[in-house]
Amino acid sequence: EDHFTNGCEGADNSEIRFKLCQDLWHKIRADTEVLQDELNRKILDSLLDFTRKCSSTRQHSDWASQMRASEIPTAALVLGVNVPDHDMTFQSLSELLQQSVTPHVASVQAKECGALKHLMKRVLERLMDTVVTVDDEEEEETEQTSTQLHKSVHCSLSTLCDWYNAKTMKSKTGTPGKKRSSPVRDDPQQPPVVIIFKDLEAFNPKVLQDFILICSRYVERLPLMFIFGIATSPSTIQHMLPHSVSSLLCIELFQSLSCTQHLATVIDKLILTPQFPFKLNGKVMQVLMSIFLYHDFSVRNFIKGVQLALLEHFHSQPLSVLCCKKKEALLNVMQLSHHDLESIRHLLSFRRYVEKQEPQEQLNLFRDDTHLKEVCQKLIKDLRKYHKNYYPVLRCLHTLTSSLPRYPLGKQVRELHLICLEKNVWENEDYQTAMKLLKMLAKDELIASLQRCVEILQPVKSKKMKKALVELEELLAKFKQLDINSSWANITLAPRSHLSPPESQTLNEVCYYSSSATVRRHLNATPRTSIQAALSSPYYYLQNESLKTEDGTVSNAAPDICIAYKLHLECGRLINLYDWLEAYATVVSAAEGNNPDSDNVRKVEEVKHARFIQAVSELEFLGFIKSTKQKTDHVARLTWGGC
Amino acid sequence: MVVVVLGAPGTILRSVWYEEERLLRVAQQMPCREVQAGMLLSLMGQPQQYSYPSIFIYGHRASGKSHVMHVLLKELELPHATVSCVECVSVALLFEQVLLSFFGCDAASLLPRSPSLSDFVRIYRQQCSQSPAKQTRYIVMEKAELLRDTDANLLPALLRLQELVEDNVTIILLSEIVWDKFRPNTGCFEPLLLHFPDYSKGELQQILSQDRHPSYTAEFYSSYINILLGVFYSVCRDLRELRHLAALNFSKFCEPLAEGKVKETDTHKLWRNIEPHLKKAMQTVYLREVSSLQWEQMQQMEEKESGALRGLSAHTHVELPYYSKFLLIAAYLASYNPARTDKRFFLKHHGKIKKTNFLKKNEKTSNHLLGPKPFPLDRLLAIFYSVVDNRVAPTASIFSQISSLVTLQLLTQVSHDDQLDAPKYKCAVSMDFICAISRTVNFDIVKYLYDFL
């Protein structure tokens, strides 16, 4: 909170803004979490079913299962290429497993298991530790085993086996009161031991093979189960494991939702809804989308981006106090200070609004604070109405156009949304072609999509939409009577009134965050550019007045490395070290501003020499130069440009 | 046929020191391995006699090595320790298991942290002086080929453990690899070699027929095995796998019987029924394209529905972010094009250079046959910037995509992890894969490949 208030624009209402921001963020986060849980539910449920089934078939001792080579049941879970996002899925998976199937779940990551020894150790540790956290009564006993384990240093699966037997025996003979902790468990005697490999691709194949071989030796005594987290495609299993090993596994495939679909749902529920007052403008949206599509496919990062935008918005825009629920916003309007009202008057959209008013009204707006407040209330209500109408109409337009050949207005709602955010959609060329195509559509198809539009508009509670709905229904009726031509104007006109870009709305600055450059700078780190910026204009980072210079020059007082960097920019591909040193010494002694007598020069030279060498080696470390064998006392530049 | 062999155990398992009855039981448990077992028995000699210090048994997977040893030692109640070398991630574990099964856990706990071989020998001697061996002790080491990767002194020491500990102990090494591949170049004690040949078709038939379904007659099951072997023998001789397959497909085989269409003796009809099914099994479940569980479910489903189930290798499609695709394409180009030709492909005004100008003598062969070549990061990025159509800022996320491609095993890092300066990579994806990727981004990769010029 302190950080938020510090350096915040318009500090007087920063506390309210901070609170609003927090509330909104919590709500967004909670909603997305619920959403993601729902999305994952299907696959997690089938996984849970799989584990249950595996543990129950194990008990059947019919002829066929006795005969079969003992296979380890394995679930291959395909999760898409963004590995960091998987953590959450695995987290909830192991929680669910612990709740409903088995207390024995261990998940391992590739980077902690370089060798078989480590993998084994991790698995044992996790399995025996989870027990401690799950069951308090067992704590003493497990502590004992862990100390034993510690004493005997090496751990093997047979230790685990003994531990498991002891554990299941105990729960068998244990009092019934103990079992109440896990009443859902199908059979408390033989809960499976689940080992989750979070990132299969990154595991050393040799380690994995050996581990599976070992496990298969114990599978009769220990009901083991694997879950492989796969990022690329299931055929990696076959690439990693030879037939002799994969024949020990009984693999079943589980495919999760693709990340683009995932994002589409998140956008649908988070962005394309009037529920949250905070909005992103077209450019910011574009930046976030391109990061997702071009760089990482990570829904989590997308939401982080939204969070950043949210924070920035509340931080930098004093009027963001009005970016909240309707009632609160109206209240906050009344409490606006004179200073805030002044800033409203400076808003671009507000000035546009003022220009349209009568001269008398204009004067009133500029002079009278209370009048302005009333107008603001009205404007905010208008903005809310606009949002309420915007999204349903957007969806309608999308249902109409998304089935057209070659998708003139995009396949996804988000693409249409971006188009609408940019400018008046009906001025767009693609929009015209879409409408032409729409006219050529077969009648039954058109009716079907119109029907869907009706369904979308139905739940919306606003007067205009009610009216549009009635019109649409009439239209549908007409269509059914083959009376097509007369009603075209209606369809094409409907979006005009509702899909105008938000920039045209007065007071849009309150809700819309528009600084795409900030978001880009924060999310799309460019290490090279920042290093160069730091070296060429140290003032930018150090904020030291003495470093402030005009463009393109470096102050003499700059750090050594900056001076060396600046000088090296003036050289060609090969740099003579001695010349460089000379130039450096000149600059530095000019900075000290004294022309010392001759015997002092030598001494200073030595210090300068050392400083110069340090600067040069720092530059080498940063990758700007490297030593070369072409000429002995030269170094080679690794970058272009400069002088 | 079975009865004949078992009827005269004395002729093969001839051993005067054990009771007839026990030998009979042993022989029953290991059909078709009587010769090897008899050989082993005579090598072992009388329980109290010193036996040969080390025996090396080799044979393919599932040729009954462990089984024979296990049955012999167990049925004849000889003191033994069985250790699997895969499991022994450290020698300490090996030592502990041996001591544990010979002298109990007290002895095992005497081992210091990270014990050396001499620690083991010391404790062994100390323990066996307290409880000297009345019978020969056996240490069976499964998957002994892994011993080659352990400390150089371990294998030679184990081979003459009898001398070292001055006890009546015999090491039996079981391996799938011949002894010639083991012999250390410093020389060592030569163990006795014993080969377990593969089972012949008749023997497989005999062994598999033994585990018949309790509710069907032996003849019926044996005819089933006959059909099964007819299909699978040409591709698979692994007893374990065959047994697995037999169990999986038996219910299908019995299906017409249960429906009452066919009698048990009508082998031809049964064969007609099961043969296409087994052929299908060979393509799917045998290759583990489809798991055995899914296979069983498929059997219960109708024929046409089961076609929907796709094998593991059918899923090869990978979704990647836009720039990752281009990075991968650039990596592929860098791996399969010689660096000299980059100028020709990526410079705008390269002039007309024909392929023959580039050809060097040793480069007649296709680069695709030679496999991917390593390339430095700089080259990857240079190609990346020239193939990607719009301007891309060199942001951190581009670099992190490279490393995430490495974790996805689509690229492999050739240089050592610690080398931060100019790392080298190789592209690890196939031609088909990269073609599919470049199609999604409208990039004609074939035009840029030197091999297809």
TrEMBL record, chain A:
Quaternary structure note: Component of ORC, a complex composed of at least 6 subunits: ORC1, ORC2, ORC3, ORC4, ORC5 and ORC6. ORC is regulated in a cell-cycle dependent manner. It is sequentially assembled at the exit from anaphase of mitosis and disassembled as cells enter S phase.
UniProt record, GO biological process: DNA replication initiation
Matching Pfam families: ORC3_ins, ORC3_N, WHD_ORC
Role played: Component of the origin recognition complex (ORC) that binds origins of replication. DNA-binding is ATP-dependent. The specific DNA sequences that define origins of replication have not been identified yet. ORC is required to assemble the pre-replication complex necessary to initiate DNA replication. Binds histone H3 and H4 trimethylation marks H3K9me3, H3K27me3 and H4K20me3.
Domain Origin recognition complex subunit 3 N-terminal, residue spans: 7-322
Family according to the record: Belongs to the ORC3 family.
Primary localization: nucleus
GO CC terms, sorted: DNA replication preinitiation complex; nuclear origin of replication recognition complex; nuclear pre-replicative complex
Keyword Repressor attributed: no
Boundaries of every Origin recognition complex subunit 3 winged helix C-terminal domain copy: 528-640
Keyword field: DNA replication, DNA-binding, Nucleus, Phosphoprotein
Organism annotation: Dicentrarchus labrax (European seabass)
Gene designation: orc3
Example GO molecular function: DNA replication origin binding
Domain Origin recognition complex subunit 3 insertion as annotated: residue spans: 334-487
InterPro entries according to UniProt: ORC3 (IPR020795), ORC3_ins (IPR045663), ORC3_N (IPR045667), ORC_WH_C (IPR040855)
Subcellular location: Nucleus
Entry protein name: Origin recognition complex subunit 3
TrEMBL record, chain B:
All residue ranges annotated as the ORC5 lid domain in the record: 221-288
Record-annotated Orc1-like AAA ATPase domain positions: 30-172
Residue ranges of every copy of the Origin recognition complex subunit 5 C-terminal domain listed in the record: 320-449
Single Gene Ontology MF annotation: DNA replication origin binding
Gene Ontology CC, one term: nuclear origin of replication recognition complex
One biological process term in Gene Ontology: DNA replication initiation
Record-linked InterPro entries: AAA_16 (IPR041664), ORC5 (IPR020796), ORC5_C (IPR047088), ORC5_lid (IPR048866), P-loop_NTPase (IPR027417)
Alphabetical keyword list: ATP-binding, DNA replication, Nucleotide-binding, Nucleus
Localisation per UniProt entry: Nucleus
Oligomer status and interactors: Component of ORC, a complex composed of at least 6 subunits: ORC1, ORC2, ORC3, ORC4, ORC5 and ORC6. ORC is regulated in a cell-cycle dependent manner. It is sequentially assembled at the exit from anaphase of mitosis and disassembled as cells enter S phase.
Protein family according to the UniProt entry: Belongs to the ORC5 family.
PANTHER family hit by this protein: ORIGIN RECOGNITION COMPLEX SUBUNIT 5 (PTHR12705:SF0)
Biological role stated in the UniProt entry: Component of the origin recognition complex (ORC) that binds origins of replication. DNA-binding is ATP-dependent. The specific DNA sequences that define origins of replication have not been identified yet. ORC is required to assemble the pre-replication complex necessary to initiate DNA replication.
Descriptive protein name: Origin recognition complex subunit 5
Origin species: Dicentrarchus labrax (European seabass)
